[in-house]
Amino acid sequence: xxxxxxxxxDGGDIFNLFRYITFRAGAAFFTALIFGFLFGRxxxxxxxxxxxxxxxxxxxxxxxxxxxxxxxTMGGLLIxxxxxxxxxxxxxxxxxxxxIVLGVTYGYAAIGFWDDYAKVSKQxxxxxxxxxxxxxxxxxAACAGIAAAWMHPSDLSGQLALPVFKDALINLSIFFVPFAxxxxxxxxxxxxxxxxxxxxxxxxxxxxAGTLGTIAYIVGRVDFTEYLEVHYVPGTGEIFxxxxxxxxxxxxxxxxxxxxxxxxxGDTGSLALGGALGAIAVCTKHEIVLAIVGGLFVVEALSxxxxxxxxxxxxxxxxLMAPIHHHFEKKGWAEPQIVIRFxxxxxxxxxxxxxxxxxx
Length: 360
What we know:
Blueprint: H1 21-51, H2 76-90, H3 96-122, H4 130-151, E1 159-161, E2 169-171, H5 176-194, H6 202-219, H7 222-228, H8 239-257, H9 266-284, H10 287-293, H11 295-314, H12 324-330, H13 335-355
Antiparallel strand pairs: 1-2
Helix pairs in contact: 1-2, 1-8, 2-3, 2-8, 2-9, 3-4, 3-9, 4-5, 4-9, 5-9, 5-11, 6-8, 6-9, 6-13, 9-10, 10-11, 10-13
């Protein structure tokens, strides 16, 4: 919205700063961060009053989690509110990629809110039917995939770009949309599965968002893409502002989510953040890089798939408990130990993901 202040600029005044994505991204970060600090505690107080007993805790989970009973959930509303206000203020609202990412993010947020509300109101860990959530998620992802394919340049539309290999494209044609659906739904559910310990999901989500935002900025600039020999996707640079807002809002949330958490993110936040990461990857043609950058989320999701499949086949378990962060809890690792080590892994994977831009 504030981008339009550039119309008042003669090229040599303060309004000229609003032309630059980097300036607006920095402003978006601080806007979301300040929003989080200002409204975090009031939101937590409201959630505590409205929810009473807070998020229900699974009886079959790690024993230490029972002490968290009564902690309010839906804390993702703080991140989402900060992101929305900041993005609408600082991004160009005539950019279609921004609206694709916002649509996926807040569509998944609505699904997650419905699920959280069902859990809290019924004091039952089951919430909304998995089939219903999956169906709605697939529908949203299909719309995003179609919109992204329509917006991509003609030489990239329907194509899958391969990292490292110069100019390598695989023509998915009509299968691009189903592929995009898998990426977005998979990312949303993988982040959701990771959100099981205080602070565990939010920092890797911010690291992944920062990495993908940097990629979006790079592939949206023709000079950078020519130098790095990556595919040019005009317009994606504005996504950098969204990711900056996500990081700012995420830090504001982490202030209250750090162990011991005063509020949980809930499905409201985890599904939304995962969906956002998937949508950004689809828009920037870096779907495979997302699997590297978000490798921690991939491992968390795979641990559940492996555990369920192996148990159904043999009646035995591969892990002491899935997702895998619970396995390490069962092995005696302290919660902060698991969280910080997983953060370190996320940072390493993000750097590897960024390296794919230069390795050609």
